[in-house]
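Researcher: Last one for today. Full complex below.
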Amino acid sequence: MRVMQEVQNQIRAALRAAVAAAAEAAGLTGPGPGKSHPEAPKEKAHGDLATNLALVMARGERKPPRAVAEAILRHLDLGGTWAERVEVAGPGFLNFFLKPGWLHQVLVAVQQEGENYGKSDHGQGKRVLLEYISANPTGPVVLVQARAGAVGSTLARLLNWAGYRCDTEFYVNDAGNQVKALARAVDLRARQLAGENVEFTGEYPAEYVIDCARDLLKQYPDFLQKPEEERLAFLERWAPEYFRAGQEEVLRRYGVVFDNWFSERKLRESGAVEALIQRLKEMGEAYEADGAVWMRTTKYGDDKDRVLVKSDGEYTYFCADAAYHLNKYERGYDLLINIWGQDHHGYQGRMKAMVQCLGRPPESLELLITQLVRLVKDGQEYKMSKRQGNIVELEDLLEEVSVDAARFFFLMRSLDSHMDFDINLANLASQENPVYYVQYAHARICSLLRQAEEAGYRVPDAASVRLEVLQDPAELDLLKKIAELPEEIIHAAESREPHRIARYVMDVAALFHAFYNRCRVLGAESEELTRARLVLADATRVVIRNVLGLMGVSAPERM
RNA sequence: GCGCCCUUAGCUCAGUGGAUAGAGCGUUGGCCUCCGGAGCCAAAGGCCGCAGGUUCGAAUCCUGCAGGGCGCACCA
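Model: Here's the assembly. Have a good evening.
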């Protein structure tokens, strides 16, 4: 049950009726409550809900906003709503003050729904495929992909909680030239390790290729006995899988698990790429020129047409990607979301054009761009010198900070901010670290509930408690925040902004700590107050646990 | 040269058309006979990069400029 929404809907309905009535009596013609949702104002003096309806209507009515507000107010019937009174304020806002008690029913809802509190059917089961990370299987998972991992896995959960059916996928580029180059590099390193005097060609200079070759020889001691052609053919399969498996492993430790790993090689082998090219030619969306096959992406706003098949007969990456995205659509997804690093943002135009060449609307593909991450330690940019090439791996990050801290920190920032990741702050387990601040609130509640149990209390059935005794401002503020969770999740999912949920749970923790400091639970002024506060504390526990669960951060019962 | 992102408190960042611009860190001052002080309360600190424009109203939308990041392949 979305208590908040129910209250809003009541008031919207009352407003709609009032505008209609005012239209007859006072000559208002306006559209009524369309865009102007009643929202909780920042300032408490402005009521529990406020709408700018009159300000929005004023222009069309050619009347001062306050006059419009007065006209609506005269015809407003609040019967059957939670609103107690309403006033016109400021430039023409309508501020609603709700009956105490509307908030209390949220505690019943939280208790009933428990670990499901916050879910809704808002998305109506629309099918979404979220593709993220999709690191090349030629190396480890790096820092910016760690950011995408935290954001992607949380966004997927948010979408599912908001009533979408969202699957996640990792696209593995285990075909094409880079795989051949990788195979050559691994083979060369293996020969070097075996003592052969071969000169390094410069392909894939990173140390992890040497590690890979070492593991290869360990697993296949006779490897170098085979002829080169056979070795390379083998490595073109083995090496990408080696790295892919490594990526899967570290990502699992990091709390990122995919519904599906999609192989480009298998896609090519299925003939889907060839079929796509044929189809595009027949549709007139592709043509041959200069010995190559081109997609007519300029037709849909791209700067230039893009090559699908190079003059040497090889498919481009873009070509396989087109076949891949067509495949996504054919699997029945209504909406495709891809999270990319900023270094790929230049591909947005051609991707948008591509889906249109495939006959799909451009808005059926959403591209989210994460900005880059800078690691900062002791106030300076931190470069891990462990490896050649100065790449920072997810693995390295997890040696510096916990999974909880890493995920929480990435999730605090909006996707498009260029973020500094402060290792010192993330590691502060004993100071004002946002991760611990929230986790501490959870552990504190669990501790409270344990002590309550020892004192002979169990968390009572919310419906059997006089919740109206919760009247302290600290209690009401906390209740209000708890009531907002379902809307907050919908908002975060719809705007693709998981960071909202991190901010939200920090607010919940702060309000709980304030409440806890101000109001005694065990040994309150009355028995029924203790019982009501136990319900409130337990509801807070559920909310924090649910949100941290969405974020992939643990909610410890003791710290 | 073209395109995308960013510019808000000392630092790291929220806030995308509303009322007095927020949080964390840092700084300063208070709060434990009592449910976890990993906490709470309070204070100081801002021409929201600059200049125009739209609007009853702009940090938010539009235009221009400046600074920073990242891209502009028959690479992946």
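The domain at 3-98 of chain A is CATH 3.30.1360.70 (Gyrase A; domain 2). The longest strand of chain A covers residues 165-172.
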